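Q: How would the C-alpha coordinates look for this protein?
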Amino acid sequence: MFLALGRLCTRGSRAKFLKTIYASKILGLSTSAKMSSKLKNAKRIEGLDKNVWIEFTKLAADPSVVNLGQGLPDISPPNYVKEELSKVAAIDSLNQYTRGFGHPSLVKALSCLYEKFYQNRINPDKEILVTVGAYGSLFNAIQGLIDEGDEVIVIVPFYDCYEPMVRMAGATPVFIPLRAKPVDGKKWSSSDWTLDPEELASKFNSKTKAIILNTPHNPLGKVFTNSELQVIADLCIKYDALCISDEVYEWLVYTGNKHLKIATFPGMWERTVTIGSAGKTFSVTGWKLGWSIGPKHLIKHLQTVQQNTIYTCATPLQGSMYDHSVNNQNTGKKIGRQVLHSWIQPKTVDPPLVESAEAESMGLEHPWILVSVRILEPVL
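A: Here is the predicted structure in C-alpha coordinate form.
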Protein backbone atom coordinates (compact mmCIF):
# COMPACT_ATOMS: atom_id res chain seq x y z
CA MET A 1 0.00 0.00 0.00
CA PHE A 2 2.74 2.47 0.96
CA LEU A 3 4.75 1.57 -2.15
CA ALA A 4 1.77 2.13 -4.41
CA LEU A 5 0.94 5.43 -2.77
CA GLY A 6 4.57 6.50 -3.08
CA ARG A 7 4.37 5.98 -6.87
CA LEU A 8 1.15 7.95 -7.06
CA CYS A 9 2.86 10.96 -5.51
CA THR A 10 4.38 11.88 -8.86
CA ARG A 11 1.03 12.00 -10.64
CA GLY A 12 -0.33 15.27 -9.33
CA SER A 13 -1.97 16.86 -6.33
CA ARG A 14 -4.89 14.38 -6.23
CA ALA A 15 -2.51 11.51 -5.70
CA LYS A 16 -0.72 13.44 -2.92
CA PHE A 17 -4.07 14.13 -1.24
CA LEU A 18 -5.00 10.43 -1.41
CA LYS A 19 -1.64 9.50 0.06
CA THR A 20 -2.19 11.85 3.00
CA ILE A 21 -5.69 10.52 3.73
CA TYR A 22 -4.82 6.85 3.36
CA ALA A 23 -1.63 7.07 5.38
CA SER A 24 -3.45 8.92 8.15
CA LYS A 25 -6.10 6.22 8.38
CA ILE A 26 -3.58 3.39 8.33
CA LEU A 27 -1.44 4.93 11.07
CA GLY A 28 -4.40 6.15 13.11
CA LEU A 29 -3.23 9.76 12.92
CA SER A 30 -5.52 12.75 13.36
CA THR A 31 -5.78 15.06 10.35
CA SER A 32 -6.64 17.96 12.64
CA ALA A 33 -4.33 20.98 12.46
CA LYS A 34 -4.59 21.32 16.25
CA MET A 35 -1.41 20.16 18.03
CA SER A 36 -1.82 17.37 20.54
CA SER A 37 -1.38 18.49 24.15
CA LYS A 38 1.19 15.74 24.51
CA LEU A 39 3.46 17.52 22.03
CA LYS A 40 3.58 20.76 24.00
CA ASN A 41 6.37 21.91 26.28
CA ALA A 42 6.54 21.05 29.98
CA LYS A 43 5.10 23.81 32.17
CA ARG A 44 8.41 24.21 34.00
CA ILE A 45 9.99 25.77 30.88
CA GLU A 46 6.97 27.88 29.92
CA GLY A 47 8.15 31.33 28.83
CA LEU A 48 11.83 30.48 29.23
CA ASP A 49 12.64 29.88 25.55
CA LYS A 50 14.28 33.28 24.99
CA ASN A 51 17.97 33.72 25.77
CA VAL A 52 19.98 36.91 25.35
CA TRP A 53 23.20 35.09 24.47
CA ILE A 54 21.54 33.12 21.70
CA GLU A 55 20.42 36.42 20.19
CA PHE A 56 23.84 38.04 20.68
CA THR A 57 25.59 35.09 19.03
CA LYS A 58 23.33 35.33 15.99
CA LEU A 59 23.90 39.07 15.64
CA ALA A 60 27.66 38.74 16.15
CA ALA A 61 27.94 36.05 13.47
CA ASP A 62 28.29 38.89 10.98
CA PRO A 63 32.09 39.40 10.64
CA SER A 64 31.57 43.18 10.57
CA VAL A 65 30.02 43.13 14.05
CA VAL A 66 32.03 43.35 17.29
CA ASN A 67 30.46 41.35 20.14
CA LEU A 68 30.62 43.52 23.27
CA GLY A 69 27.91 41.56 25.04
CA GLN A 70 29.53 38.32 26.14
CA GLY A 71 32.33 37.83 28.63
CA LEU A 72 34.80 36.67 26.03
CA PRO A 73 38.44 37.01 27.17
CA ASP A 74 40.58 39.71 25.59
CA ILE A 75 43.72 37.60 25.99
CA SER A 76 44.78 34.13 24.93
CA PRO A 77 44.95 31.25 27.42
CA PRO A 78 48.38 30.89 29.08
CA ASN A 79 50.71 28.68 27.08
CA TYR A 80 51.27 26.32 29.99
CA VAL A 81 47.54 25.55 30.15
CA LYS A 82 47.34 24.74 26.44
CA GLU A 83 50.54 22.69 26.60
CA GLU A 84 49.23 20.62 29.50
CA LEU A 85 46.00 19.89 27.65
CA SER A 86 48.06 18.63 24.73
CA LYS A 87 50.08 16.38 27.05
CA VAL A 88 47.03 15.05 28.87
CA ALA A 89 45.24 14.26 25.59
CA ALA A 90 48.10 11.90 24.71
CA ILE A 91 47.46 9.79 27.84
CA ASP A 92 44.98 7.03 26.97
CA SER A 93 43.50 6.70 30.46
CA LEU A 94 42.70 10.41 30.61
CA ASN A 95 40.53 10.15 27.51
CA GLN A 96 38.00 7.92 29.30
CA TYR A 97 35.27 8.60 31.83
CA THR A 98 36.45 9.86 35.19
CA ARG A 99 34.81 10.16 38.59
CA GLY A 100 31.38 11.73 38.13
CA PHE A 101 31.82 14.39 40.81
CA GLY A 102 35.26 15.54 39.68
CA HIS A 103 38.57 14.04 38.58
CA PRO A 104 40.30 12.84 41.81
CA SER A 105 43.48 14.84 41.23
CA LEU A 106 41.58 18.04 40.44
CA VAL A 107 39.27 17.98 43.47
CA LYS A 108 42.29 17.32 45.70
CA ALA A 109 44.09 20.29 44.16
CA LEU A 110 41.03 22.49 44.62
CA SER A 111 40.69 21.46 48.26
CA CYS A 112 44.35 22.33 48.87
CA LEU A 113 43.83 25.72 47.26
CA TYR A 114 40.59 26.79 48.90
CA GLU A 115 41.25 25.58 52.41
CA LYS A 116 43.89 28.32 52.55
CA PHE A 117 41.05 30.84 52.41
CA TYR A 118 38.40 29.03 54.43
CA GLN A 119 40.83 28.13 57.22
CA ASN A 120 39.30 24.68 57.50
CA ARG A 121 39.80 21.34 55.81
CA ILE A 122 37.69 20.80 52.70
CA ASN A 123 36.83 17.21 51.91
CA PRO A 124 37.64 16.85 48.18
CA ASP A 125 35.17 13.99 47.69
CA LYS A 126 32.21 15.32 49.64
CA GLU A 127 32.54 19.09 49.63
CA ILE A 128 33.62 19.83 46.04
CA LEU A 129 31.74 19.13 42.82
CA VAL A 130 33.29 19.76 39.39
CA THR A 131 30.66 20.88 36.89
CA VAL A 132 30.12 21.87 33.27
CA GLY A 133 31.07 25.48 33.84
CA ALA A 134 29.68 27.76 36.53
CA TYR A 135 26.41 27.43 34.62
CA GLY A 136 26.33 23.77 35.61
CA SER A 137 27.06 24.66 39.23
CA LEU A 138 24.18 27.14 39.29
CA PHE A 139 21.82 24.62 37.73
CA ASN A 140 22.80 21.86 40.16
CA ALA A 141 22.45 24.17 43.17
CA ILE A 142 19.06 25.52 42.18
CA GLN A 143 17.64 22.16 41.10
CA GLY A 144 19.06 20.40 44.12
CA LEU A 145 18.15 22.91 46.81
CA ILE A 146 15.23 25.05 45.60
CA ASP A 147 11.67 23.75 45.67
CA GLU A 148 8.31 24.72 44.23
CA GLY A 149 6.82 27.55 46.26
CA ASP A 150 10.18 28.80 47.53
CA GLU A 151 11.34 32.37 47.06
CA VAL A 152 14.86 33.22 45.90
CA ILE A 153 16.26 36.73 46.22
CA VAL A 154 18.04 37.94 43.08
CA ILE A 155 20.16 41.09 43.07
CA VAL A 156 19.53 43.37 40.06
CA PRO A 157 21.24 43.62 37.61
CA PHE A 158 22.04 39.94 37.37
CA TYR A 159 23.53 37.34 35.07
CA ASP A 160 20.72 36.32 32.76
CA CYS A 161 20.33 32.65 33.77
CA TYR A 162 19.51 33.31 37.44
CA GLU A 163 15.86 34.12 36.85
CA PRO A 164 14.94 31.31 34.41
CA MET A 165 16.75 28.70 36.51
CA VAL A 166 14.79 29.77 39.59
CA ARG A 167 11.52 29.70 37.67
CA MET A 168 12.34 26.29 36.17
CA ALA A 169 12.59 24.94 39.71
CA GLY A 170 9.07 26.20 40.39
CA ALA A 171 10.26 28.95 42.71
CA THR A 172 9.62 32.69 42.63
CA PRO A 173 12.47 35.16 42.07
CA VAL A 174 12.29 38.20 44.34
CA PHE A 175 14.28 41.13 42.95
CA ILE A 176 16.30 43.66 44.92
CA PRO A 177 18.15 46.40 43.00
CA LEU A 178 21.61 47.79 43.51
CA ARG A 179 21.05 51.55 43.67
CA ALA A 180 23.61 54.18 42.72
CA LYS A 181 24.10 57.27 44.86
CA PRO A 182 26.80 59.32 43.14
CA VAL A 183 28.16 62.24 45.13
CA ASP A 184 28.76 65.62 43.50
CA GLY A 185 32.39 66.12 42.63
CA LYS A 186 33.24 62.48 43.14
CA LYS A 187 34.19 60.09 40.37
CA TRP A 188 31.41 57.58 39.79
CA SER A 189 32.49 54.04 40.66
CA SER A 190 30.98 50.57 40.65
CA SER A 191 31.29 50.71 44.44
CA ASP A 192 28.60 53.42 44.42
CA TRP A 193 26.05 50.76 43.51
CA THR A 194 24.83 49.39 46.82
CA LEU A 195 21.99 47.50 48.43
CA ASP A 196 19.71 49.36 50.79
CA PRO A 197 19.86 47.28 54.00
CA GLU A 198 16.25 48.00 54.95
CA GLU A 199 14.97 47.26 51.47
CA LEU A 200 16.98 44.03 51.40
CA ALA A 201 15.62 42.99 54.79
CA SER A 202 12.06 43.56 53.52
CA LYS A 203 12.61 40.90 50.83
CA PHE A 204 13.30 38.14 53.37
CA ASN A 205 10.45 36.14 54.89
CA SER A 206 9.52 32.59 55.89
CA LYS A 207 9.36 31.54 52.21
CA THR A 208 12.88 32.75 51.42
CA LYS A 209 14.98 29.70 50.59
CA ALA A 210 18.06 31.43 49.21
CA ILE A 211 19.73 34.55 47.92
CA ILE A 212 21.97 34.51 44.84
CA LEU A 213 25.06 36.64 45.37
CA ASN A 214 27.49 37.58 42.60
CA THR A 215 30.81 39.09 43.66
CA PRO A 216 32.83 40.38 41.89
CA HIS A 217 29.66 41.47 40.15
CA ASN A 218 28.62 41.00 36.54
CA PRO A 219 27.82 43.38 34.87
CA LEU A 220 28.70 46.31 37.17
CA GLY A 221 32.21 45.26 38.15
CA LYS A 222 31.40 45.79 41.83
CA VAL A 223 33.33 43.97 44.57
CA PHE A 224 31.13 43.62 47.66
CA THR A 225 32.70 44.94 50.86
CA ASN A 226 32.95 43.28 54.26
CA SER A 227 30.10 45.35 55.67
CA GLU A 228 27.85 44.67 52.67
CA LEU A 229 28.46 40.94 52.92
CA GLN A 230 27.86 41.02 56.66
CA VAL A 231 24.38 42.48 56.12
CA ILE A 232 23.57 39.64 53.73
CA ALA A 233 25.05 37.03 56.08
CA ASP A 234 23.06 38.32 59.06
CA LEU A 235 19.80 38.12 57.11
CA CYS A 236 20.57 34.62 55.84
CA ILE A 237 21.18 33.45 59.39
CA LYS A 238 18.12 35.26 60.78
CA TYR A 239 15.79 33.72 58.20
CA ASP A 240 17.63 30.38 57.92
CA ALA A 241 18.24 31.01 54.20
CA LEU A 242 20.89 29.61 51.88
CA CYS A 243 23.39 31.65 49.90
CA ILE A 244 24.40 30.67 46.38
CA SER A 245 27.55 32.72 45.85
CA ASP A 246 28.68 33.10 42.24
CA GLU A 247 32.38 34.02 42.45
CA VAL A 248 33.69 33.19 38.99
CA TYR A 249 35.65 36.46 38.85
CA GLU A 250 37.31 35.93 42.24
CA TRP A 251 40.89 36.11 40.89
CA LEU A 252 40.33 39.17 38.74
CA VAL A 253 40.33 42.11 41.13
CA TYR A 254 42.23 45.36 40.74
CA THR A 255 44.77 46.51 43.31
CA GLY A 256 43.06 48.35 46.12
CA ASN A 257 40.06 46.03 46.15
CA LYS A 258 39.78 42.71 47.96
CA HIS A 259 37.51 39.82 47.16
CA LEU A 260 35.91 38.32 50.26
CA LYS A 261 34.10 34.99 50.44
CA ILE A 262 30.80 35.15 52.27
CA ALA A 263 31.20 31.47 53.18
CA THR A 264 34.07 32.50 55.49
CA PHE A 265 31.79 34.71 57.60
CA PRO A 266 30.63 33.28 60.95
CA GLY A 267 27.65 30.96 60.52
CA MET A 268 27.80 31.00 56.70
CA TRP A 269 29.89 27.98 55.70
CA GLU A 270 27.07 25.58 56.56
CA ARG A 271 24.54 27.48 54.41
CA THR A 272 26.62 28.59 51.40
CA VAL A 273 27.41 27.04 48.04
CA THR A 274 30.35 28.88 46.45
CA ILE A 275 30.80 28.69 42.69
CA GLY A 276 34.11 29.06 40.85
CA SER A 277 35.32 28.68 37.28
CA ALA A 278 38.44 27.93 35.27
CA GLY A 279 36.99 29.60 32.19
CA LYS A 280 37.29 33.18 33.39
CA THR A 281 40.54 32.60 35.29
CA PHE A 282 42.50 31.05 32.44
CA SER A 283 40.69 32.55 29.42
CA VAL A 284 39.29 29.14 28.48
CA THR A 285 35.55 29.80 28.56
CA GLY A 286 35.03 27.16 25.87
CA TRP A 287 36.29 24.46 28.23
CA LYS A 288 33.18 24.91 30.41
CA LEU A 289 34.84 23.82 33.63
CA GLY A 290 33.47 25.03 36.95
CA TRP A 291 33.02 23.81 40.51
CA SER A 292 30.86 24.11 43.59
CA ILE A 293 32.29 24.19 47.11
CA GLY A 294 30.29 23.85 50.30
CA PRO A 295 29.40 21.63 53.25
CA LYS A 296 28.70 18.00 52.45
CA HIS A 297 25.07 18.26 53.57
CA LEU A 298 24.47 20.70 50.68
CA ILE A 299 26.91 19.43 48.05
CA LYS A 300 25.42 15.93 48.20
CA HIS A 301 22.18 17.29 46.73
CA LEU A 302 24.07 18.96 43.88
CA GLN A 303 25.83 15.65 43.26
CA THR A 304 22.46 13.93 43.00
CA VAL A 305 21.39 16.35 40.25
CA GLN A 306 24.64 15.92 38.36
CA GLN A 307 24.69 12.13 38.48
CA ASN A 308 21.21 12.09 36.98
CA THR A 309 21.87 14.67 34.26
CA ILE A 310 25.33 15.07 32.70
CA TYR A 311 27.00 12.56 35.09
CA THR A 312 30.60 13.73 34.53
CA CYS A 313 32.78 16.39 32.90
CA ALA A 314 35.50 16.05 30.26
CA THR A 315 38.44 14.14 31.72
CA PRO A 316 41.28 15.73 29.67
CA LEU A 317 40.17 19.24 30.63
CA GLN A 318 40.09 18.36 34.31
CA GLY A 319 43.44 16.61 34.03
CA SER A 320 45.11 19.60 32.42
CA MET A 321 43.83 21.96 35.10
CA TYR A 322 45.50 19.84 37.73
CA ASP A 323 48.64 18.63 36.02
CA HIS A 324 50.09 22.05 35.15
CA SER A 325 49.82 23.02 38.81
CA VAL A 326 52.10 20.23 40.01
CA ASN A 327 54.44 20.07 37.05
CA ASN A 328 57.91 18.78 37.91
CA GLN A 329 56.89 17.85 41.46
CA ASN A 330 58.07 14.42 42.56
CA THR A 331 55.77 14.23 45.56
CA GLY A 332 52.44 15.67 46.61
CA LYS A 333 53.88 17.42 49.66
CA LYS A 334 54.05 20.82 47.96
CA ILE A 335 50.81 20.53 46.03
CA GLY A 336 48.99 23.18 48.08
CA ARG A 337 51.65 25.83 47.47
CA GLN A 338 52.00 24.94 43.79
CA VAL A 339 48.27 25.03 43.06
CA LEU A 340 47.80 28.23 45.00
CA HIS A 341 50.59 29.92 43.06
CA SER A 342 49.28 28.79 39.66
CA TRP A 343 45.73 29.87 40.31
CA ILE A 344 46.51 33.27 41.76
CA GLN A 345 49.01 34.28 39.07
CA PRO A 346 46.43 34.87 36.29
CA LYS A 347 44.93 37.83 38.15
CA THR A 348 48.03 39.84 37.23
CA VAL A 349 47.59 39.21 33.53
CA ASP A 350 50.15 40.44 31.02
CA PRO A 351 49.18 42.17 28.84
CA PRO A 352 46.45 43.66 31.06
CA LEU A 353 42.84 43.24 30.05
CA VAL A 354 42.44 47.02 30.02
CA GLU A 355 44.77 49.90 30.72
CA SER A 356 44.73 50.99 34.38
CA ALA A 357 43.82 54.57 33.50
CA GLU A 358 40.87 53.40 31.43
CA ALA A 359 39.68 51.11 34.22
CA GLU A 360 39.92 53.87 36.80
CA SER A 361 38.06 56.31 34.60
CA MET A 362 35.22 53.81 34.34
CA GLY A 363 35.19 53.13 38.08
CA LEU A 364 35.84 49.40 37.68
CA GLU A 365 36.96 47.28 40.59
CA HIS A 366 37.73 44.20 38.53
CA PRO A 367 38.72 43.96 34.85
CA TRP A 368 36.71 41.20 33.21
CA ILE A 369 33.45 43.10 33.16
CA LEU A 370 34.68 45.90 30.92
CA VAL A 371 32.74 44.86 27.81
CA SER A 372 29.56 44.32 29.80
CA VAL A 373 29.78 47.75 31.41
CA ARG A 374 30.37 49.39 28.06
CA ILE A 375 27.30 47.88 26.46
CA LEU A 376 25.14 48.79 29.45
CA GLU A 377 26.30 52.39 29.72
CA PRO A 378 23.42 53.86 27.67
CA VAL A 379 20.76 52.45 30.01
CA LEU A 380 22.38 53.00 33.42
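Residues 98-348 form a domain with the Aspartate Aminotransferase; domain 2 fold (CATH 3.40.640.10).

Residues 1-26, 323-358, 368-380 have pLDDT under 50 and may be disordered.

Upvote if useful.
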